[in-house]
Specification:
The complex is a heterodimer.
Chain A: E1 9-11, H1 16-26, E2 30-32, H2 38-44, E3 51-54, E4 64-67, E5 70-74, H3 79-84, H4 86-91, H5 93-100, H6 105-108, H7 113-119, H8 127-132, E6 136-141, E7 144-149, E8 154-156, E9 159-160, E10 167-173, E11 179-185, E12 196-202, E13 212-216, E14 223-224, H9 226-233, H10 238-248, H11 259-278
Parallel strand pairs in A: 1-3, 2-3
Antiparallel strand pairs in A: 4-5, 5-10, 6-7, 6-10, 8-9, 11-12, 12-13, 13-14
Chain B: E1 2-5, E2 8-11, H1 20-27, E3 46-49, E4 52-55, E5 68-70, H2 80-87, H3 97-105, H4 113-119, H5 131-141
Parallel strand pairs in B: 1-5
Antiparallel strand pairs in B: 1-2, 3-4, 3-5
Helix pairs in contact in B: 2-5
Classes of the chains: A alpha+beta, B alpha+beta.
Chain lengths: 281, 154
């Protein structure tokens, strides 16, 4: 291990109430959920923060439940729990598809959906799913609860609207109508971080229904592709929609891929989404 | 901090942010668990926490208080997986082997080849090409070890 724990401190709340008070009174603190991102940075020697808040034992932050028409997924829900959940398979199968392609079993047993969102990587695999599903992020602080649509949660590269005294406690997902679609393009199915990840919904049975499409690893934040959606929904040709897509995304060269490859693959994926939706009309 | 490791209660003095991997190797003396990449990519440090496979390089010891931890030593040396890995070429250089076996141990009885591939997708091996590992896991679950590891001393 290149990093060190010497000089670092872990606060251990006994309840969610405790945790938000610690964030208010003893901050800044970095929340620890499954540690599958934070401990990579620690091991690598690149972890800057020195004070942490252990959320793992707060069982009130676990679980998946249907509340009326809303599906509520608590922040500490692991990818394994998502994969095994009958409610997710029934109502949000694209989230189960994303969870299955994250890491390997060891990561899926520990990594959490709240951690994926809080880590705010533009490549996070569940983020396009939550964007396309119109999910709402539930934030809790000592001052109360507020809800932020996922589509306005990210403000820049690894930046979110969450304040340092706020915790992500859950995601609320309204009913999703129509066929759900998820694709991850990476070096291999397991372990690899996405070169591009995409989620979409299109209720082709209803003529007036608009498609919803979101993509990761093509911009500083995961993106809801609202202009491309509008083009597809208004009957534009695929070529026109792909042209609009190219103006909506801003991929870069990095160690996983190149901007040029990502532009080509992004266009191909939109083509696939369009083709599969049209074939079901 | 009190932990249960391989069915034994142990008390450790580690900093709560210490990696489970380091507690097992350095405080418990259980060096069967290996450090490979130290970033959750290779699975060499896989152990079971309450029966689930985890990368012990990514788990702070504070998060496993009150859980049951099982390491390769906890399988006892004559576990069907340990025998078939020796008998059928599942182990070559050996660095990935404890992690492979622990990930395989979490698979449940008689896993299909697909379940084995998926369950071991987070474990990297640079020697075997995986075929011998999958074979070892399948044979272990079907009671096909020879009973005595012919190359057990190797």
């Amino acid at each position: 291990m290149q990093g060190t724990i010497a000089g670092r401190q872990l606060l251990q709340p006994r309840s969610l109430g405790d945790a938000v008070k610690m964030l208010r009174d003893d901050g800044p603190l970095v929340p620890l959920a499954g540690c599958t991102d934070v401990y990579v940075a620690l091991n690598f020697g690149t972890l800057q923060p020195t004070r942490f808040l252990n959320l793992w034992n707060l069982d009130g932050l676990r679980g998946i439940e249907a509340r009326g028409t809303t599906l509520r997924i608590s922040a500490l829900t692991t990818y394994t729990e998502i994969i095994k959940s009958a409610a997710i398979r029934r109502r949000l199968p694209m989230l189960a598809a994303a969870a299955r392609e994250i890491g390997g079993v060891q990561i899926q047993n520990r990594g959490t959906i709240g951690g994926n969102v809080a880590n705010a990587s533009p490549a996070g695999d569940t983020l396009p799913v939550l964007l396309a599903a119109d999910a709402v992020v539930v934030l809790r602080s000592a001052a109360g609860t507020r809800r932020v649509p996922m589509t306005s949660f990210y403000t820049g590269y690894r930046q979110t609207v969450a304040r340092p005294d706020e915790l992500i406690v859950a995601f609320e997902i309204p009913p999703v109508r129509g066929r759900q679609w998820f694709r991850k393009v990476g070096t291999r199915a397991a372990q690899a971080i996405a070169k591009i990840v995409v989620a979409g919904v299109w209720d082709t049975a209803r003529a007036e229904a608009q498609p919803r499409l979101a993509m990761g690893s093509v911009a500083p934040t995961p993106l809801r592709l609202s202009k491309t959606e509008r083009a597809l929904g208004s009957g534009a040709s695929l070529a026109d929609a792909q042209e609009i897509l190219q103006r909506e995304i801003a991929p870069i060269d990095d160690l996983r891929s190149t901007a040029e490859y990502r532009r080509q693959v992004a266009a191909n994926l939109v083509g696939q989404f369009y083709g599969e939706a049209r074939s079901r009309r | 901090m009190r932990l249960t490791v391989n069915r034994k209660a142990v008390t450790v003095r580690a900093h709560p942010l210490t990696r489970l991997l380091d507690v097992l190797r350095e405080e418990c003396g259980l060096t069967g668990t290996k450090e490979g990449c130290g970033e959750g990519e290779c699975g060499a440090c896989t152990v079971l926490v309450d029966g689930e496979a985890v990368n012990s390089c990514l788990v702070p010891v504070a998060q496993v208080q009150g859980t049951r931890i099982t390491t390769i030593e906890g399988l006892g040396g004559k576990h069907p997986l340990q025998r078939t890995f020796v008998e059928h070429g599942g182990a070559q250089c050996g660095i990935c082997t404890p992690g492979m076996i622990m990930a395989a141990a979490a698979l449940g009885p008689r896993p299909s080849l697909d379940a084995i591939r998926l369950g071991l997708a987070g474990n990297l091996c640079r020697c075997t090409g995986y075929a011998a590992i999958y074979r070892s896991v399948r044979l272990a679950s079907r009671g096909r070890s020879k009973g005595k590891g012919q190359r057990a001393k190797a």
